[in-house]
Amino acid sequence: MYSRDEVIIRIIEEKGIKAIPNLIELLEDENPEVRELALEALSILAPEGKDYLLKEFKRRFQMNLHDDVVLLYLAELLSDFKCLEIKENLEMMFNRFSDERAFPLILENLLKVTQDEKYLDILETYLDCEDVDIEEICIMAVTELPSKKSINILLEKYYNTNNNSLQLLILDSLVKILTNDFDLVPYLRDKDSDIYEKLEWHIRSY
Hints:
mainly alpha, 0% strand, 72% helix, single chain
C-alpha cells in the first residue's frame, strides 16, 4: 500500500499536468479522502497548470450549476495565486449555493485575490451566527489579510465566545497573522498584553 504522499508523488511524476483533467473529475468523488487527495495534487500542479485551471473555472462558471463544489475547489486553487481574473465571478457566486458554509469560503477567496478590507467587514457578520462550522471558516478566512483590523475582529470574537475550540482556533489564527506580518506584533502587544503573553513563545519560535 502506498502512503498518501506517495500516491500524490506518483501521480505528479507519472502524469504531470496531463493529470489535471482527471484530478478535477475526482473532486466530485463521493469519498472525501479521494477529493482531498485530488485537491492536494492539484495544488502542487497549479503553478504549471494555472491556465488550464482558469479555463476550467470559467467554463464551469458559464454552466451556471447549482451547488457546484468543484467550482469552489477551483476558486480556492486560483485564489491562492491571487488570480484577479476570477474576482467578478466570485462576486456572482453567492446565489449559486444553498449551503451557507460556501459564503465565507467565497469571501475568503475574494480576500486572497483582492486584499480588500471590505471583505473582512462582511466576514465579521458571519462570526455571530450559531453555526460553529461557519464561524471556524470565518476565523481562518480572516487570517488571509494580516492587518490591525483582522486582529481586532479576532480579539472581539475571542472574548465574545465561550467555545474553547473556537478560542484556540482564534489564538492559532492570531499567530498566523503575526508570523505573516511581524510589524503587527507591537500592535497586539499594546492592544492586549494578556493575549500577547499567551502567544509570545509561538511567535518567537518562528
